[in-house]
Amino acid sequence: MIEHEGIIDHIDGDVAHVKIDNVSACMSCHAKGACSAADQEEKFLDVPLQGATYQQGDPVYVQIAKHLGFRAVALGYVYPFLVLMSVLIGMLAAGAGELRAGGVALLSIIPYYLVLYLFRNRIAKSFTFSIKKTFTVQ
Predict the structure, then answer these.
(1) Among candidate residues 59, 64, 56, the one with its CA nearest the CA of residue 12
(2) Residue 45: how many CA atoms within 13 Å on its side-chain side?
(3) What are phi and psi of 20, to 5 degrees?
(4) What is the pLDDT averaged over residues 63-83?
């Protein structure tokens, strides 16, 4: 399982809206003030409660199966890279110039991401998150 710490922002019915602080690896670097790569952003996830009782402000772990994380990486990065490289190599093999082949290859990933966007709700249903309470020792 892949886990991230979060806090329940609010609850609507049987769905918890969990706030996760997404911190890059640069945040722990001593030189982060001199680097523009250091970033931190908040993300919100909707997680079904499945009958469990939680309160607003509860610290929780948001979990997702590791294979779903790999699937997300494949959909977002690996498959479009394969499309881009296939079109580039195909265009170059067909005798197109490098500039034209590169331009067409870059444009070829637009339909891929458009299809991904159109099916975003269907894809989102296959990515199921769960939460568990964080136990803090006082």
Answers:
(1) 56
(2) 24
(3) -120, 130
(4) 91
Domains in the chain: boundaries: 2-23+36-133
Q: How far apart are CA 43 and CA 6, in angstroms?
A: 9
Contact in structure between 6 and 18 (CB atoms under 8 Å): yes
- Supply the angle between the helices 79-93 and 98-118 in degrees, to the nearest 10: 150
Note whether 131 and 62 are within 8 A (CB): yes
Between strands 59-64 and 15-23, the pairing is unpaired
* Mean pLDDT value of segment 105-116: 96
Cα angle vertex 38, ends 66, 24, to 5°?
10
